[in-house]
C-alpha cells in the first residue's frame, strides 16, 4: 500500500465533479489521467484501478513499467504525454495505447509508416498545441495546426487524430489560464470545420489548473502531484534504467 493515494484520487474526483457542475457539464465526460512519471510501480498499482488513464512522459520509463506490470492487474489505457523523439516512435507505439504529443507532420508520417509495418489500421493520436507560446514547450503553434492536420489527413491514413492536447503556462492567473484553455477549445471548433473530423477529446488541465480547464471544456485532465505527491527526479525506485 502506498498511503494516501486512494484518498487523493477521491478528492480530485470530487473537485472534477464540482468544476463540471459549475459549468453545466457531466462529470462523466471528464476522464482522470494519473500521471505517473518518476513514481514507483507500487504507487501505480494502487492508483491503476481508480483512474481512467495512465500518462507517462518518457518512453523508456513507461516501457520498463509496462514490462514489469503484474499479470492479472487490470490496466486502463496508457497515453504518451511527453516530447517524442523520432528514434523512439516505434517503442512508443508498442508501449502506449495513444500518443498525445504529436507536434509535427513528420512525427505523424513516421507513426503512419510504422503502423503500416505493424498492420495497424488506425493508431490514435492527439495533436499537441503550444497555445501559451512558451519557447521551451512542445507543441505546434496554433496557426500551424490547420495545415498540419490537413497534411495528416492527406498522407497518413493510418493515423487517427482524436483530439488536441495542451500544457498551459505555469501561473495562478485564472484569467490567463482561461484564455489558454478556451483558445484550445476554439481551435478545436475551427479544425472540426476545416477537417470534418469529430475531434472529441481535449486533453487539458494539470494538478494546478484542472478546474479551470474543465470549465473550459476539458475531456481529459492529467493529474500527477495532486495524486502522487511531489516527483523525485532522482528516484531510483522508478524502474527507468537509462537516461533519456
Ligand atoms: C508531468 C505532467 C503532468 C502532470 O503534472 P502535475 O502538475 O504534477 O499534475 C501533466 N501533463 C504533462 C504533459 C506532464 O508532463
Topology record:
Blueprint: H1 5-22, E1 31-35, H2 41-47, E2 53-56, H3 59-67, E3 78-80, H4 89-95, E4 98-102, H5 105-117, E5 123-128, H6 145-155, E6 159-165, H7 174-195, E7 201-203, H8 210-215, E8 220-223, H9 225-228
Parallel strand pairs: 1-2, 1-8, 2-3, 3-4, 4-5, 5-6, 6-7
Helix pairs in contact: 3-4, 6-7
This protein binds pyridoxal-5'-phosphate (PLP).
Residues 35, 37, 57, 81-82, 167, 206-208, 222-226 line the site of pyridoxal-5'-phosphate.
Protein model, in words:
With 244 residues, the chain is of the alpha/beta class. The protein has one domain: Alanine racemase (TIM Barrel). 40% of the residues lie in helices and 15% in strands. The chain has helices at residues 5-22, 41-47, 59-67, 89-95, 105-117, 145-155, 174-195, 210-215, 225-228, and strands at 31-35, 53-56, 78-80, 98-102, 123-128, 159-165, 201-203, 220-223. An 8-stranded parallel beta sheet has the order 7-6-5-4-3-2-1-8. Strand 5 (123-128), helix 6 (145-155) and strand 6 form a beta-alpha-beta unit. Helix 3 (59-67) packs parallel to helix 4. The radius of gyration is 17 Å and the shape is globular. The chain starts with a helix and ends in a 16-residue tail after the last helix. Bound molecules: pyridoxal-5'-phosphate. Residues 35, 37, 57, 81-82, 167, 206-208, 222-226 line the site of pyridoxal-5'-phosphate (PLP). Pyridoxal-5'-phosphate binds next to strand 8 and helix 9.
Amino acid at each position: 500500500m502506498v498511503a494516501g493515494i486512494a484518498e487523493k484520487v477521491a478528492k480530485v474526483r470530487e473537485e472534477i465533479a464540482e468544476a463540471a457542475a459549475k459549468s453545466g457539464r457531466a462529470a462523466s465526460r471528464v476522464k482522470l489521467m494519473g500521471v505517473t512519471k518518476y513514481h514507483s510501480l507500487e504507487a501505480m498499482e494502487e492508483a491503476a484501478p481508480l483512474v481512467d488513464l495512465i500518462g507517462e512522459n518518457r518512453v523508456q520509463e513507461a516501457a520498463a513499467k509496462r514490462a514489469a506490470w503484474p499479470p492479472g492487474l487490470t490496466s486502463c489505457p496508457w497515453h504518451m504525454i511527453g516530447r517524442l523523439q523520432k528514434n523512439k516512435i516505434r517503442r512508443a507505439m508498442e508501449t502506449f495505447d495513444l500518443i498525445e504529443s504529436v507536434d509535427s507532420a513528420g512525427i505523424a508520417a513516421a507513426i503512419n509508416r510504422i503502423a503500416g509495418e505493424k498492420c495497424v489500421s488506425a493508431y490514435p493520436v492527439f495533436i499537441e498545441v503550444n497555445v501559451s507560446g512558451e519557447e521551451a514547450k512542445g507543441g505546434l503553434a496554433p496557426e500551424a495546426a490547420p495545415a498540419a492536420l490537413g497534411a495528416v489527413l492527406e498522407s497518413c491514413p493510418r493515423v487517427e487524430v482524436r483530439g488536441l492536447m495542451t500544457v498551459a503556462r505555469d501561473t495562478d492567473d485564472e484569467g490567463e489560464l482561461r484564455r489558454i484553455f478556451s483558445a484550445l477549445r476554439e481551435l478545436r471548433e475551427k479544425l472540426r470545420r476545416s477537417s470534418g473530423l469529430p475531434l472529441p477529446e481535449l486533453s487539458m488541465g494539470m494538478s494546478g489548473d484542472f478546474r479551470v480547464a474543465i470549465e473550459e471544456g476539458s475531456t481529459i485532465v492529467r493529474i500527477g502531484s495532486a495524486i502522487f505527491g511531489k516527483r523525485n527526479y532522482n528516484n531510483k525506485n522508478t524502474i527507468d534504467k537509462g537516461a533519456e
